Amino acid sequence: MGAAEPKQDVFQAIADPTRRKVLNLLAGQEMPVNAISGHFPMSRTAVSKHLRILADAGLVQERKVGREKRYRLQPEPLLELKRWLAYYERFWENRLSVLKHLVEAEEPGESGSGSSPALGLKAAEPGGRP
């Protein structure tokens, strides 16, 4: 692979749980396809297809060592995913800030009964019903 544009979208490539597991395996070391396929209940050919999709997205790089192909992680394309997720992180942080404020505002010794309209939560009554 070179500096050519990826043929696969990074988001589509990592959408499959098998491909995410392949990336996890390759995060620590370069591996041949036989070693990778030993971690999955599928044929070597099926694993090779997953590797091809990851390579097309620029997420793995292959090199030939004798008759064997070895694969290693190329994490740079994951920066696109990180930037995309960073935008939405503010929504999670906002919810956690509201929750923290509500918990800290509750007086000590209070049983926590009542409701929390900011989060859309309603405490259960003693009988177990909201």
From TrEMBL:
<keyword id="KW-0238">DNA-binding</keyword>
<dbReference type="GO" id="GO:0003677">
    <property type="term" value="F:DNA binding"/>
</dbReference>
<feature type="compositionally biased region" description="Low complexity">
    <location>
        <begin position="113"/>
        <end position="124"/>
    </location>
</feature>
<dbReference type="InterPro" id="IPR011991">
    <property type="entry name" value="ArsR-like_HTH"/>
</dbReference>
<keyword id="KW-0805">Transcription regulation</keyword>
<dbReference type="InterPro" id="IPR036388">
    <property type="entry name" value="WH-like_DNA-bd_sf"/>
</dbReference>
<dbReference type="InterPro" id="IPR001845">
    <property type="entry name" value="HTH_ArsR_DNA-bd_dom"/>
</dbReference>
<dbReference type="InterPro" id="IPR051081">
    <property type="entry name" value="HTH_MetalResp_TranReg"/>
</dbReference>
<feature type="domain" description="HTH arsR-type">
    <location>
        <begin position="1"/>
        <end position="93"/>
    </location>
</feature>
<dbReference type="InterPro" id="IPR036390">
    <property type="entry name" value="WH_DNA-bd_sf"/>
</dbReference>
<keyword id="KW-0804">Transcription</keyword>
<dbReference type="GO" id="GO:0003700">
    <property type="term" value="F:DNA-binding transcription factor activity"/>
</dbReference>
<protein>
    <submittedName>
        <fullName>ArsR family transcriptional regulator</fullName>
    </submittedName>
</protein>
<feature type="region of interest" description="Disordered">
    <location>
        <begin position="105"/>
        <end position="130"/>
    </location>
</feature>
<dbReference type="Pfam" id="PF01022">
    <property type="entry name" value="HTH_5"/>
</dbReference>
